[in-house]
Specification:
Blueprint: H1 3-58, H2 84-91, E1 96-100, E2 104-109, E3 114-124, E4 130-134, E5 139-146, E6 150-152, E7 159-163, E8 167-173, E9 179-186, E10 192-200, E11 212-222, H3 228-233, E12 236-240, E13 248-251, E14 256-260, E15 264-270, E16 274-293, E17 300-311, E18 318-329, H4 332-336, H5 350-371, H6 375-406, H7 408-417, H8 424-438, H9 446-465, E19 485-493, E20 496-500, H10 501-517, H11 527-548, H12 553-577, H13 580-589, H14 599-621
Antiparallel strand pairs: 1-2, 2-3, 3-4, 5-6, 5-11, 7-8, 8-9, 9-10, 10-18, 11-17, 12-13, 12-15, 14-16, 15-16, 16-17, 16-18, 19-20
Helix pairs in contact: 1-11, 5-6, 5-9, 6-9, 6-12, 6-13, 7-8, 8-14, 9-12, 10-11, 10-12
Length: 622
């Protein structure tokens, strides 16, 4: 590992430390600010209650019963509409209708003719409670049409016209004739709900200039997982343009807003493992999206808003606009089966890494899970398989490392021969000559590293987003998709409030692996080289521990296994395959023979000559 790499790792580590510290302070400030707002709201509510009490004291005929309690907010009175049927619908009481199949339970409310809550069966939250993607009273779906003034469906109670095992039809009639109809169909054995919004007999009410309807979907997505940081990092709002390779998004732990004036096929309120997706088969013509994450202590995760427009053809007596909904898990195969690129909400690591994940990691994972129920064993077998595949390429690296270990006495002599910094070029040149005599390639580790980096990154993206690992226990870990906190505390220190045992073991294994690889490196009398070795030995494990401590324990477990298998392979090659005596004999046999100079050595000699010429020129000027 060269000096530039070490400096890079140090800078990355310092950035990570600064980030964790900054994030911890920001969360604390956000919580303090929210508490401040809550206290102001409570004070205003109490002041309003006092004023009401004083008024009631002067108006005993309007005094409340003794059992009445003060409220913090008063709902505004429903507006009065010129249309008598709309006016009656605005003041009517809401009713509820439930549709369910083997996968979903959807409760609809006549208030707005919309889904009230959506429960995903066969899944529970981390606290073992029923899992709701949409919570009762915490979401709104509405359509606004101009007929001839703005009519927002969320303000009216629809009439239930038809209910079957899979269908509910609700209508909002107008006094002048015509009605708005919302028909929902819950598909059998599916996470899909289809909707048709129809404007029947309203050809004269809807102006010909009104070529669109407004669609507003507002939802507070609840917390469902153990780790707040991990859950927010993998939760976002996606939007997909027709024909695009990947959806755009906002979120991933940060609030965001986006606005578009082009066609949008669908959008998704995506929690780490579950999504609420709304699709317009005829596309939306406009989209305005916003997302904000709730504080860590809240029972809710994020507040998602989508304001869109859908085109209609005014002047017709009957207008129908279809929509499709998906309320379910972020399963790659399950989402892909819908054929609308829903599976692209799952982060797989970009185009190149994503191809490896889709065509190697996911098929291998699915194949093993058909025969094995323990996901800890599945990860072990996947790690062994991947190591076997890259072993032919990694062998050269391990072999070169073993040969360099045998050359350590020669390296110490070269360091002693050139102790001064100005002799660095000579030392490098003689070192390269030694490597050539022993048949060692100093670049032998590059190809295996290039091959393993995409694999490591693919795993880094795959494990935290894999719903198959969700709530799957292994050893001391209760959930392989979350961190395994064997030790935790209340106050945040450098962004940490726990210690993950798998992350700690992974860091320890990385330390010992670095120690093994450094056995063939000699720093000599160079204090900078010694410092770089020390930082490489300690800095990388510490940095990786900070990174993985909040991530999936399955990911840390994979990295731990990968390090252990790599150490085993290195030990086997050094013990039985590369004989140090043969390496030394090869060097001694080539001692009196002029070794052919490689291009690398030639470049070093040229650089050395240039350095000497520069020193001579400086001496003449002086």
């Amino acid at each position: 590992m060269d000096k530039n790499s070490i400096i890079g790792f140090v800078l990355i580590f310092l950035i990570m430390i600064g980030f964790f510290g900054y994030q911890s302070r920001q969360v604390k400030k956000q919580q303090e600010y929210q508490a401040h707002l809550d206290s102001i709201a409570a004070a205003e509510a109490y002041a309003q209650w006092q004023q009401d009490s004083i008024w009631r004291a002067g108006h005993p005929e309007a005094a409340l019963p003794e059992e009445a309690v003060p409220v913090t907010a008063v709902a505004p009175a429903a507006p009065v509409y010129s249309d008598s049927l709309l006016n009656a619908a605005a003041h009517a009481d809401a009713q509820f209708v439930t549709l369910e199949n083997d996968k979903l339970e959807v409760v609809f409310t006549t208030r707005g003719g919309q889904p009230y809550s959506v429960k995903v069966k066969d899944y529970l939250t981390y606290t073992k409670e029923p899992l709701y993607i949409l919570q009762g009273g915490k979401s709104e779906l509405g359509y606004t049409v101009y007929a001839p003034t703005a009519v927002d469906t969320r303000k009216f109670n629809f009439q239930v016209e038809e209910v079957t095992d899979s269908t509910v039809v609700m209508r909002l009639p107008f006094a002048g004739g015509g009605y708005i109809e919302q028909k929902y169909v819950l598909l059998k054995d599916s996470y899909s709900v289809n909707e048709e919004v129809s404007f029947v007999g309203m050809g004269e009410l809807i102006p010909r200039s009104a070529g669109t309807i407004d669609v507003d979907f507002d939802a507070m997505i609840p917390r469902m997982e153990k780790g707040y940081k991990n859950e927010t990092q993998y939760s976002r709002l996606n939007y997909y343009f027709p024909g695009d390779s990947d959806p755009g998004h906002i979120g991933n732990g940060r609030r965001g807003e986006k606005r578009f004036n082009n066609n949008i096929e669908w959008f998704a309120f995506q929690q780490q493992f579950f999504s609420a997706i709304m699709r317009a088969p005829k596309n939306f013509s406009y989209g305005d999206f916003a997302l904000e994450f709730m504080p860590k202590g809240s029972e809710d995760l994020m507040h998602c808003k989508a304001a869109l427009r859908a085109d209609i053809n005014p002047g017709q007596e009957n207008i129908t606009v279809p929509f499709e909904f998906y309320f379910g898990p972020n399963s790659y195969k399950g989402l892909k089966a819908y054929g609308h690129a829903y599976e692209k909400v799952i982060p797989l690591g970009g185009k190149v890494i994503g191809l490896f994940t889709k065509w190697v990691i996911i098929p291998l994972f699915d194949w093993l899970s058909r025969a094995i129920s323990n996901y800890g064993i599945i990860i072990l077998l996947m790690t062994i398989f991947i190591k076997i595949v890259v072993l032919p390429f990694a062998y050269k690296s391990y072999s070169s490392s073993a040969k360099m270990q045998a050359l350590k006495p020669y390296m110490e002599k070269i360091n002693a021969k050139y102790p001064k910094q100005e002799d660095a070029m000579k030392k490098q040149q003689e070192t390269m000559a030694l490597y050539k005599k022993a048949g060692v390639s100093p670049m032998g580790g590059c190809l295996p590293m290039l091959l393993q980096m995409p694999i490591l990154w693919a795993m880094f993206r795959f494990f935290p987003a894999s719903i198959e690992l969700r709530q799957q226990p292994f050893l001391w870990a209760e959930d392989l998709s979350a961190y395994d906190d064997v030790i935790h505390w209340s106050t945040s220190i450098l962004g940490m409030d726990h210690i993950s045992l798998f992350a700690l073991l992974m860091a320890v294994s990385m330390f010992f692996y670095s120690k093994i690889t450094m056995q063939n490196q000699t720093a000599g009398n160079d204090p900078n080289a010694k410092m770089m070795q020390a930082m490489s030995l300690y800095m990388m494990p510490i940095m990786m521990f900070f990174i993985c401590n909040n991530l999936s324990s399955g990911l840390s477990y994979y990295y731990l296994l990968s390090n252990l298998i790599t150490m085993l392979e290195t030990w086997i090659i050094r013990k039985w395959i590369v004989d140090p005596k043969e390496v030394i004999a090869k060097v001694e046999a080539a001692e009196n023979k002029p070794a052919p100079k490689s291009k690398w050595q030639q470049r070093l000699e040229e650089a050395q000559k240039m350095q000497r010429e520069m020193e001579k020129q400086k001496g003449k000027k002086r």
